[in-house]
Amino acid sequence: MITDLTNNSQLSYIAVEGVIGAGKTSVATRLSERLNAKLILENFEDNPFLEKFYLRPDDYAFRTQMFFLLERYTQLQELHQKDLFQNYIVSDYIFEKDKIFAYLNLSDDELKIYEHVVQGLDKNVVAPDLVIYLQSSVERLMSNIRKRQREIEKEISEGYIDNLNDAYNYFFSRYKASKVMIVNSDDADFVNSSDDFENLVNEIFKTDSSAVKYYNPSLRKTAE
Q: Phi and psi at residue 116, in whole multiples of 5°?
C-alpha cells in the first residue's frame, strides 16, 4: 500500500543514520525522491584526510574529525533557509553523530579541543523531527562495504566497524534530541525492493507518539 503523504506536516525534516555500509545514503536518496524533498548528503569524499586516517588513524584522527565537524556545521546551516517549493527535508546524517567518531578516535587532549569547538556550534543546528537509524550486523556492514568497492574504504577493518557499531548502538539507546525509529535492516533491501521500501515509508508515517519505536521488516514478512 502506498501512503498518501501530501498533508503530513509533523515530519518535515527526516534524517537517516547508520554505521558505514548501512545504506543510509541510498535510503535517504530514495526517500527524498519519494517525498520530493530537499536532499542533504554528507560530502565525505571532500575530506582530504579520510583515506590517510584509515591508514594511520593515530596521526590523522584529529584533522579528519575537525574537517568533518566544520563541514557538517556549514552544510546544515542551509536548514535555516525555508524552501517554498518543498515540504520535506531528508539528510543522510545528523550533526550529533560527529561525537560518536570523536569519542571513538580522538585522544583525551584532542577531545578537549574538540569539545570546546563543538559546544559553540551545537546550539545553532536544527534537530530532525525523526531520525531513522538503520541498525545492521557487522557482517552485513562489511559485506556492503566490500560490494561497493570504494577506494577510500579499502583499508577499513572489521574491528573498526565492530567498535563503531557498538558506539552507534550505545549512542542511539540514549539519544533524546529527536524521535528515533530503529530499523533492523539486515534482512531488508530498501533500495532494490519496492515492497521493502514502501513498507518502510508506511512505517515512518504511522501516527505514533512514542519517542523511540522499532521496526523489524523480517517480522512483517513472517506475519504476511
A: -60, -40
pLDDT band at 192 (very low <50, low <70, confident <90, very high): very high
The residues, ordered by sequence, that sit 6+ positions from 85 with a Cβ below 8 Å of its Cβ are: none
Rounded Cα distance between 216 and 201, Å, is 13
Query: What one-character DSSP code corresponds to residue 4?
Result: P
Which of 107-116's residues contact partners 24+ apart within 8 Å by CB, and which partners?
107/61, 107/62, 110/61, 110/62, 110/65, 113/62, 114/62, 114/65, 114/66, 114/69
What pLDDT score does 221 carry?
A: 54
What letter would DSSP give residue 206?
S
Average pLDDT rounded to a whole number, residues 211-215: 93
Helix (H, G, I), strand (E, B) or coil at 90: strand
Q: Which of 88, 90, 175, 168 is nearest to 134 (CA)?
A: 168
Torsions phi, psi for 15 (to 5 deg) = -115, 140
Residues serving a catalytic function are 92
Domains of the chain: residue spans and CATH: 13-223 (3.40.50.300)
